[in-house]
Amino acid sequence: MITPMPPYDPSAFPPFAVTVDLVVLTVRRHALCALAVRRGEPPFQGRWALPGGFVRADEDLEAAAARELTEETGLQAQTPAGASPIYGAHLEQLATYGDPKRDPRMRVVSVAHLVLAPDLPAPRAGGDAHSARWAPVETLLEQDDTTREGELAAPLAFDHARILGDGVERARSKIEYSSLATAFCPPEFTVGELRRVYEAVWGVALDPRNFHRKVTGTPGFLVPTGGTTTRQGGRPAQLFRAGGATLLNPPMLRPEV
Amino acid sequence: MITPMPPYDPSAFPPFAVTVDLVVLTVRRHALCALAVRRGEPPFQGRWALPGGFVRADEDLEAAAARELTEETGLQAQTPAGASPIYGAHLEQLATYGDPKRDPRMRVVSVAHLVLAPDLPAPRAGGDAHSARWAPVETLLEQDDTTREGELAAPLAFDHARILGDGVERARSKIEYSSLATAFCPPEFTVGELRRVYEAVWGVALDPRNFHRKVTGTPGFLVPTGGTTTRQGGRPAQLFRAGGATLLNPPMLRPEV
DNA sequence: GGAATAGTGTCTATTAGACAATATATA
DNA sequence: TATATATTGTCTAATAGACACTATTCC
Description:
Chains A, B: GO terms for molecular function: hydrolase activity; nucleotidyltransferase activity. Chains A, B: Residues 15-158 form the Nudix hydrolase domain. The structure is a homodimer. The first copy, chain A, is an alpha+beta fold. Chain A has two domains: 14-172, Nucleoside Triphosphate Pyrophosphohydrolase (Alpha-Beta Complex), CATH 3.90.79; 179-242, Arc Repressor Mutant, subunit A (Orthogonal Bundle). In chain A, 23% of the residues lie in helices and 26% in strands. Chain A has helices at 61-73, 137-141, 160-177, 191-202, 208-217, and strands at 17-28, 31-38, 48-49, 52-54, 76-78, 88-97, 108-116, 132-136, 222-229, 237-242. In chain A, the strands form two sheets. In chain A, strands 1, 2, 3, 4, 5, 6, 7 and 8 form an eight-stranded mixed sheet that branches. In chain A, strands 9-10 form a two-stranded antiparallel sheet. The longest helix of chain A is centred in the middle third of the chain and has 18 residues, at 160-177. The radius of gyration of chain A is 20 Å and the shape is elongated. At the A-B interface, strand 1, strand 4, strand 6 and strand 7 of A face strand 1, strand 4, strand 6 and strand 7 of B. The first copy, chain A, binds a DNA duplex through residues 190-192, 207-210, 212-214, 216, 230, 232-238, 250, 253, 255.
């Protein structure tokens, strides 16, 4: 049952605050990076955190996540039920975190979402003025606070390291059996660019020849556009768009078995 | 950011009720079944719904799900971090549902959990006195309300059909790449019993010979206990326990590619 | 030409799936 | 005996992974 009594009785249930937090991933300079914002107030003042905010009173969870995403990055969310007018990014619910002690101020349940975005030509178009940046997930997840890059060494605020870790693991496994790796690519891309996405997300090196044969042979994964490009140097490469398939069959296989 | 201001300001965020709903699945008589409870009050009075209830003020989400599970079924949850003293059932978070209109009375965010349980010798040991029963998921998800079994024909309350559908899909896909199918089995089971679990969850027939070769050849999946049984008739079968592996490599392959 | 990337072809070990054959219980 | 289930073995087609080789650009 959902409630014991039909008339709305506010004393019948404890009140919660509900937020959305975002794990926004992209691939930059051959590394998997996440969006982090710097906290301006306590608790965890000055520490880095995942972007996020309160769900509004009449707002769906996914709508709240999409709104926060646009506010922080200027990206438009691309959910299964909606096309993207500007620059698409994949958005899906990740998991919900509700430890009673996760926020020292009050009881906050956070519905984390995962966003996969292409490397932005102009990062954070419409973002707030507060400090935000892309950082390699390895840096953000490091335990020790050896000051390597200085400001980025301290661990993430709240339970955000755990949330980020869960998001990274979700992304690593979803590009195995779905075509979501293309969400990290611009609308048109080469097989080599797609391979570098897999290599960055999985953190492994892949054989370019076998990779090419595999992705071009998987039905519905890639659609050739007819064009070619030479942005990587070397022989010009064919350009592709993401095909209609969402689930890959057979899946891409992650090495190290 | 999580909140705009450090001092706790209740007016700064809208209040939500947070519940857990349970998709409890088992395999009975060669069919995948879910636990449903009958609602005693409006809205949806008299309709079937998923078991669930409010998260308490100082309770973790998973603890709330485990508590509701024990209240409704007598089952003890078996989470990664805890052994089960009585009868184990696998519990994991499924997804969170927060459509502003999903409950007509107030704003309720429900964190759904998935439970995989063996067929119970005595169903619902410590359950409440209110009406509860196992029903085939096909029956619960039927759209039309042709009165076949009478009481079970009406659609589920709230958005519970969608939640149940998501839970069934999660279970179907998780037994592909994890050893979770053993969560539907008693502590000791035969290869044939495990095969009937796969057949019931996937709704397909599997070749007993290839299945046997596959599961016994997957490292860490099954551990022979040395005993045999003849509960299915025919030649006695070896008894196995679940092995230590949680992820299957290579995975079980679902037919119909 | 040399270096870099793109793309095709070939070989081998592994495996999924079809299915024959054998083993051991109950009726 | 017939029948049911369990278990092993065999064959074949498909595929992942290793890697030789060719193609086409820029320097």
